[in-house]
Amino acid sequence: MLEVSSNELPVIPGKRYFTIGEVSDLCAVKPHVLRYWEQEFLQLKPIKRRGNRRYYQREDVVLIRQIRALLYEEGFTIGGAKQRLTEDETNNFTHSSEQSSIIQQLVRELEDVLVILRN
Fold first, then answer.
1. pLDDT in tens for each of the 119 residues of the chain?
2. Measured between alpha carbons, how far is 51 from 65 in angstroms, rounded to an integer?
3. pLDDT at position 1
4. Which of 34, 44, 46, 32 is nearest to 85 (CA)?
5. Given Cys at both, which of 22, 79, 110, 115 links 18, Cβ 3.0 to 4.6 Å?
6. pLDDT at residue 2, as a whole number
7. 83: closest CA among 25, 115, 53, 43?
8. Residue 54 forms beta bridges with which residues?
9. What is residue 89's predicted lDDT score, i.e. its pLDDT?
10. With left for phi above 0 and alpha for psi between -120 and 50, is residue 66 left, alpha or beta?
């Protein structure tokens, strides 16, 4: 397979579900590699239906592209990529709780301003 960088990958269509063949084309990764990554990366869980066929959602395709970039472009090992994805999830959770407290503070301040304006 030719080396393809992330910014050369095709645009992800606005579909709800993708077959393994479609995801393979969208991410420039062979189907057997996708099946292997499912075993290694617990975050990657396509829906399995009739005959154990895999159906990936848009979030799965984005995650596969992240994994691909970590492994093929940034030179991470499987273990390193797992760790990076776990750290990213932890950071996103931390940021969302920080953002939540900031939003709550802003709401209180806006309510105070509203009380002042009504008087």
1. 445 665 688 999 999 999 999 999 999 999 999 999 999 999 999 999 988 899 999 999 999 999 999 999 999 999 999 999 888 776 665 556 667 777 788 888 888 888 889 88
2. 26
3. 44
4. 44
5. 22
6. 44
7. 43
8. 48
9. 73
10. alpha
Sign of CA dihedral 65, 68, 72, 77: positive
pLDDT at 109: 87
CATH code of 1-75, in short, is 1.10.1660.10
On whether the CB atoms of residues 26 and 60 are closer than 8 A, the answer is no
> Which residue carries 């090992």 as its tokens?
77
Task: Indicate the length of the chain as a whole number.
Answer: 119
Number of CB atoms found within 10 A of residue 65's CB: 18
Whole-angstrom distance, CA of residue 41 vs CA of residue 78: 9
Q: Do the Cβ atoms of 44 and 57 come closer than 8 Å?
A: no
| 46 contacts 58 by C-beta, under 8 angstroms | no
Domain boundaries, the chain: 1-75, 77-119
